[in-house]
Amino acid sequence: MKARRYKVVIWILMGIIALFLLLALWYKQSHAMDLVEPYTVNSENFGRKLLIATQGSDFKDALVQDVITHYKNDSVFIKVIDVSGLPQVNHQDFDGILLVHTWEYNKPPQVVEEFIGDSKVKIQKVIAITTSGEGHRFIEGVDGISGESEVKFAHEYSDWAIMKLNSLLFEDTKDTLP
């Protein structure tokens, strides 16, 4: 009788674990960010260079397009990549780095953590915009803001990013900027 009870308990536990795994898989698939195809804007020969590492979503795409529109008529080379491409980036090639990512499982994506944690990366030239449901998640030590990813607020976030990026990209001309 006891052996039968143990079998029932084991089957129930296995069912709960399987259900949990299925829910985790569903959550990952339904909330996964789209991959961003890398592209560049303006000539690589320009003196000022901006890297935008992002994930694909309507909010993030709108924000990135605002930043690109702002700088496309300036002498700023812009390289846009998916955050998964950060390990292949030489941060020394850029004057400013904008990270736009989602908070996943109570932390930034692992590639973002590793990129920021790299002791060679100058944290002062990194700006981060983090999306999270609660809107209060930040990467410690990085200048950034956080909030929900609602497209109607993308312009406000991009305005903030542009203000911060201006201080990085044009720091040698701060006194001459209007």
Q: For the residues shown, what is the average pLDDT?
A: 83
The coarse silhouette is: elongated
Question: Strand pairing plus helix content: what structural class?
Answer: alpha/beta
Rg over alpha carbons: 21 Å
Discrete helix count:
4
CATH superfamily of the largest domain: Response regulator
Q: Approximately how much helix is present in the residues?
A: 25-40%
Number of domains: 2
In this structure, how is the largest beta sheet organized?
A: 6 strands, mixed
Could you name the CATH class of the largest domain?
A: Alpha Beta
- Beta-strand content estimate: 15-25%
**Strand order, largest beta sheet:** 1-3-2-4-5-6
Regions with pLDDT < 50 over 5+ consecutive residues?
none
Strands, count: 6
CA distance, first residue to last residue: 85 Å
Named at the architecture level, the CATH assignment of the largest domain is 3-Layer(aba) Sandwich
CATH topology of the largest domain: Rossmann fold
- The helix/strand series, from N terminus to C terminus, equals HEEHEEHEEH
Describe the protein.
- The longest helix has 30 residues, at about 1-30.
- The N and C termini lie far apart (about 85 Å).
- By secondary structure, this protein is α/β, with parallel strands linked by helices.
- About 40% of the residues lie in helices and about 20% in strands.
Give the arrangement of secondary structure elements.
Blueprint: H1 2-31, E1 39-41, E2 48-54, H2 58-71, E3 76-82, E4 96-102, H3 110-117, E5 126-131, E6 143-147, H4 154-169
Parallel strand pairs: 2-3, 2-4, 4-5, 5-6
Antiparallel strand pairs: 1-3
Helix pairs in contact: 2-4
Transmembrane segments: 9-27
Protein name: ThuA-like domain-containing protein
Keywords: Membrane, Transmembrane, Transmembrane helix
